[in-house]
Design a protein that fits this description.
InterPro entries: HTH-type_LysR_regulators (IPR050950), LysR_HTH_N (IPR000847), LysR_subst-bd (IPR005119), WH-like_DNA-bd_sf (IPR036388), WH_DNA-bd_sf (IPR036390). The chain is of the alpha/beta class. It has 9 helices and 12 strands. Strands 3, 4, 5, 6, 7, 8, 9, 10, 11 and 12 form a 10-stranded mixed β-sheet that branches. Strands 1-2 form a two-stranded antiparallel sheet.
């Protein structure tokens, strides 16, 4: 068993087939197939099942994959620690994030980090909030932008945010100062996919479990959410930090009572996080604090 074989296994799982895995790691498809078959022979178990729709892990493969990812993270940490001892910040870091997240926040942090550490290979993954939490717990990513706090991960505060109600400028809500759950009963609701569980559970709690709340649409793209709200298809819920400077025919109001939440940078363990992951966290915290995403200063 060697490092290349372990990297092959992860590549096949992440891409879902041998052809894309070969392209990803720069080998031929036959070399990938041969390397994985050799790993299975050495371990004495079948790791991957091949089918018409791609590949899937066996039970043994799932167990092996967990330890494989942990081993690769540890090896990357060793490389980064050695580089740091030479005064060099280099290596690979995988970041996971979910919609809806402020584009200004994300782009600002990524730009500042790459400016300070140009030798770091930063890989970005986008998914739902639940997927990102699972990626952190399973070592698929080194750092995830997640709810703070979050289960199965250690996190540090990055952003304090608030869910706002977004609606057309001629909507009846325009006369209100805040929007209660009772006011929402008659409205079709547009919920961001990545925050669906957080929003729906909070709304039901505020409405004391009111079954009349109509969760009509679940949408991934913030631009689509704003367009749907502008067309009067429903009332939308979006984090305040994601709102554009020009709402262009829309208005937004806070919930009554206000619906605040926190977003953090999560890792599986700060003790075992790679040096580059820690540098990214420090850079992100400093950028967020200096640009008003943490109104009370430095994160805790």
């Amino acid at each position: 068993m060697n490092l290349s074989q372990l990297e092959l296994l992860v590549a096949v799982v992440e891409t879902g087939n041998f052809s894309d895995a070969a392209d990803k790691i720069g080998l031929t498809q036959s070399a990938v197939s041969h390397g994985l078959a050799k790993l299975e022979t050495e371990l004495g178990v079948t790791l991957i099942e091949r089918g018409r729709r791609g590949v899937s892990l066996t039970g043994a493969g799932q167990e092996v994959l967990v330890h494989t990812r942990e081993a690769l993270v540890s090896l990357e940490a060793i490389r980064q620690a050695a580089a740091a001892s030479r005064g060099v910040s280099a290596g690979r870091m995988r970041l996971g994030a979910a919609y809806p997240l402020s584009a200004r926040l994300l782009v600002g942090i990524l730009g500042e980090f790459q400016r300070q550490y140009p030798d770091v290979d930063l890989v970005y993954f986008e998914g739902t909030a639940r997927e990102v939490e699972e990626w952190v717990a399973g070592s698929v990513v080194d750092v995830g932008i997640v709810l703070h706090p979050t289960p199965n991960a250690e996190s540090r505060l990055l952003v304090e945010d608030e869910i706002c109600v977004v609606f057309p400028a001629d909507h009846r809500f325009r006369r209100l100062e805040m929007v209660s759950a009772e006011e929402l009963v008659r409205e079709p609701l547009i919920i961001p996919k990545s925050g669906f569980k957080l929003v729906t559970e909070t709304l039901r709690k505020l409405g004391e479990g009111d079954a009349r709340l109509r969760f009509q649409y679940t949408v991934s793209d913030p631009r689509t959410i704003f367009l749907m709200a502008r067309e009067g298809l429903g009332v939308a819920f979006m984090p305040r930090t994601t709102l554009p400077d020009d709402l262009d025919g829309l208005m937004c109001l806070p919930m009554d009572p206000p619906f605040h939440f926190r977003v953090g940078l999560g890792v599986r363990s700060w003790e075992t996080a790679t040096p580059v992951a820690k540098l990214f966290t420090q850079t992100a915290e400093a950028w967020a604090a200096s640009h008003g995403f943490l109104p009370h200063g430095r994160p805790k």
